[in-house]
Amino acid sequence: MKIIQKYNECIGCGSCVALCPKFWEMDNEGKAYLKGGKKNPETGDWELEIRKAGCNKDAVDACPVQIIKIVEC
């Protein structure tokens, strides 16, 4: 399973951070970033492999611009 975030499209609302602080944090630019994530050079998205969706499912549902998704690997 993998979390994918379109970082450049983040509006910095912080809902993902509030719901899932183990995986999300606000950066100095006022955007949320995926802790431990790596930038995919082909897509420009940030990605992190995970075992369980857990609170990230709530982060996906709460994101007002729908830039976070969870996909099966």
TrEMBL record:
Alphabetically ordered keywords of this record: Electron transport, Iron, Iron-sulfur, Metal-binding, Transport
UniProt-listed PROSITE patterns: 4FE4S_FER_1, 4FE4S_FER_2
Annotated 4Fe-4S ferredoxin-type domain residues: 1-29
MF-aspect GO terms: iron-sulfur cluster binding; metal ion binding
Domain of life of the source: Bacteria
InterPro entries xref list: 4Fe4S_Fe-S-bd, 4Fe4S_Fe_S_CS, Fe-S_cluster_ET
Listed Pfam families: Fer4_15
Protein name from the UniProt record: 4Fe-4S ferredoxin-type domain-containing protein
Protein source organism: Candidatus Tagabacteria bacterium RIFCSPLOWO2_01_FULL_42_9
Organism phylogeny: Bacteria, Candidatus Tagaibacteriota
